[in-house]
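Posting for a labmate who doesn't have an account.
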Amino acid sequence: MDFLVELAEGFIGIFNAGGGVLTSLVTGILPTLIVLLTFVNAIIVLIGEERVTGFARLMTKNIILRYTVFPVLAVFFLTNPMCYSFGKFVEEKQKPAFYDAAVSFVHPITGLFPHANAGELFVWLGISSGLTTLGLSLGPLALRYFIVGVIVILIRGIVTETLTKMMWKD
């Protein structure tokens, strides 16, 4: 009989844990995301959707800019995870590659701009702790980390776009 009680308590415990996670999201990241989304949409309305879309289209016409400057701007200004919403400005077949580039850049930007992915700051701090221990400057490492990140997102964007095109064919 105790086995059935433990099984029932364990079963409902799964849903209680899920409810706890949902509550933490509702009181944590969701309000921030909603306010940020509202702010970005307000800025787009103030600037003009045609101008913003035109600028984005100009940036995404060139494959180099599409997978370097555009994701860097998205991550810098909108931070993680809101930066992925910039994908609405790229062609449908380029969305997976843009996402791949943006998601791959949320760590390399952290050394220079910690606001872009504050939730993962511990990654940068772990990487840089050796230099800090030695009393060395973190600037050169942060800059190299950023530059390598841009190179990596360009490669990932091009490779993912190529693979997407291959899979998209009927």
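Reply:
Got it, the structure tokens are right above this. The chain has a mean pLDDT of 86.
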